[in-house]
Design goal:
Shape: elongated
Number of domains: 2
CATH architecture of the largest domain: Orthogonal Bundle
Radius of gyration: 21 Å
Helix content: over 70%
Number of strands: 0
CATH topology of the largest domain: Rna Polymerase Sigma Factor, Chain: A
């Protein structure tokens, strides 16, 4: 008779945090298919869901030491995967020819100057407004995720983004 030792998630987590990479792989491997299904339901694309889930599991493996246990491991993995998906939305996977636009040098220069002006004005914002605006515009995060990241409520995160945009508009319009 062959006895197989089945370890709980807690035991695997303790072992993984102690440096046992096999325990970490087993632990995260237990959630792989479930995470793929979760992401497929959110993204509607199996291939992208597989990629996002794989990247999220890799990030989770690297950051396993940082898992505090405030939520379930599965919730933590889903949060990582959702943030991954926000950072690389499926429509960003365009071919090079789709990304080429026809512009003239004047248009390009004007756009570049506007971007630099916005970035300069962003540097003048208070840190939390700057971070909230960055997460919303460049990382495409929800207000709930921004609030979680900045340790504030989603409503406060929304206000931070609003006031940051308002200050930048005011500076650009010279008022």
């Amino acid at each position: 008779m062959l006895l197989v030792s089945v370890k709980s998630d807690e035991e695997l987590l303790v072992a993984a945090k102690a440096g046992d990479s096999e325990a970490g792989s087993l632990l995260l491997g237990k959630y792989r298919q479930r995470l793929v299904r979760f992401m497929r339901s959110r993204l509607g694309n199996s291939a992208v869901a597989e990629d996002v889930a794989q990247d999220a599991l890799l990030d989770a493996f690297r950051g396993l030491q940082g898992f505090r246990g405030d939520c379930s491991l599965y919730t933590w993995l889903c949060t990582i995967a959702i943030r991954k998906a926000y950072r690389q939305p499926p429509n960003s996977l365009k071919t090079e020819s789709e990304m080429v636009t026809h512009t003239n040098p004047e248009t390009l220069l004007g756009a570049k100057q506007e971007v630099w002006q916005v970035l300069d004005n962003m540097k003048q914002l208070p840190h939390k407004q700057q971070a909230a605006l960055y997460y919303k515009v460049y990382e495409n995060m929800s207000y709930a995720d921004i609030g979680y990241t900045l340790n504030c409520s989603p409503m406060y995160a929304k206000k931070l983004v609003h006031y940051a945009k308002k200050k930048i508009r005011k500076e650009i319009n010279g008022q």
